[in-house]
Amino acid sequence: MSQHFENTPSAQRLFASGKKRILALDGGGLRGMISIAFLERMEQVLREETGKPDYVLSDFFDLIGGTSVGSLLGTMLALGYPVADVRRRFEEWGPAIFKGRDTVIGQDRFDARQLVNRVRSVVEDETLGSEKLLTGLVIVAKRADTGSPWIMNNNPRMKYFDDGADENFAWRGNRHYKLVSLLRASTAAPFLFTPVEIEIATDDADANEVGEFVDGGVSPHNNPALQMLMMAGLPAYQLNWSLSPEDLLLISVGTGTNRTRVKRTKSRSFARRMFSGFASVFNSHIASDLEEAQYAAATLRGLVTDGQTFGLTMLQSLSEPRFSWRINSEIGDLSGQLLAAPHPRGLMRFQRYDAPLELGLVPPEFDIAATKAEREAMFPIDEPKNIPKLYAMGQEAAAKQVSAADFAGFVDR
Questions:
Q1: Which of 53, 139, 275, 345 is positioned for an S-S bond with 71, CB 3.0–4.6 A?
Q2: How far is CA 34 from the centre of its chain?
Q3: Model pLDDT for residues 74-112, shown as the tens digit of each residue
Q4: Separation CA 322–CA 324 (nearest Å)
Q5: Cβ atoms of 64 and 74 closer than 8 Å
Q6: Which of 87, 181, 200, 82 is nearest to 139 (CA)?
Q7: How many helices (H) and strands (E) does the chain have?
């Protein structure tokens, strides 16, 4: 790592000694409005605790990361934006981005230019190596053409951050990637936005390849918190932070928790309804095949929830949260149950914040008052009319869940 990168604001935060703080933000489209409500409450609590009315989350957290919409929110926070600015932009952007649907075989595609133009208005031409990033930053995307999640980050000690070479090839470092391109990749949700191509540059321009990227939510890391814990402690990631409840705080913020349920039915399906007016062209056999394809796609979407649930299971088994989330009916919420760890109270202080969009996921005092129907109405991730209700649900949940106790011992620097 060159002396220059050692002296950037983000590197100083990553490699300074002392206690460390991680903020992990889930993907979830417009349901990111729930996350914003929690971020507002956290910022307010920290301002009260520090006595600084202009205190922002980049003043507190050393590493901020996210997937999909979480990567967008996280990048703005890492650049020093107060949450009020993040909220204002999100409320303005949402209806503009999620409109102008182009329906192809029953799936809505949105014009990604609406997203890119607004993201660029914030990040401009800054790159992953930008000195304007005040904290460590993680952006999760999935490189579809190689089948590999890309955990892009501004840790200058990582092998591919800077330009380099080994016995196989020479490369231009990840620090050159523009933030607008990485955020476009992380938010390229299948069926909502088209994939994005990014040139994977080497020192030999003729040998450059083009990677095809999709939303990081289709990797195991739609909730990136477990991955960020590994980055903190595994030697391969070269941060080597101390792992104990006294030394490491990990806050995970969701976009509304609910399971993905798929019901196969013999009734008049969406695919059949869509093609009913074209019976002369599409026969019932083709409609049946489309129905099966719809069912398969809906089933695979459940893998996003599966990855989130597994990550939460691991995190709660390695810590003692102030309140825990129910995992399933078989193992409950794992309260009082720890995997073997060097520290008798786990590897970190951990807390998960989210608005439950299903009943019974958290103890009643941390739940929201919405009915089952009201919660289910918030399931879509691409419905702009839900923005005010999502924010209200997030505010209610944040008022009940966020506590100064979660940050005690980590506030002063």
A1: 139
A2: 12
A3: 999 999 999 999 999 999 999 999 886 555 444 557 888
A4: 7
A5: yes
A6: 181
A7: 12, 12
Distance from C-alpha of 145 to C-alpha of 213, rounded to nearest angstrom: 8
C-beta separation of 354 from 397 below 8 A: yes
Place of tokens 């970190």: 348
Name the token pair of 288.
Answer: 């049946």
Distance (Å, rounded) from C-alpha 196 to C-alpha 142? 11
Adjacent-strand bridge partners of 356: 257
Q: How confident is the model at residue 300 (pLDDT cuts 50, 70, 90)?
A: low
pTM above 0.85, yes or no: yes
**What residues form DSSP beta bridges with 142?**
149, 214
Sequence-distant (6+) residues with CB within 8 A of 51 are: none
- Please give the structure tokens belonging to residue 215: 């939303």
Max CA distance (Å), the chain: 72
Residue with tokens 């941390």: 366
Q: How far apart are CA 237 and CA 158, in angstroms?
A: 7
Amino acid identity for residue 57 in this structure: L
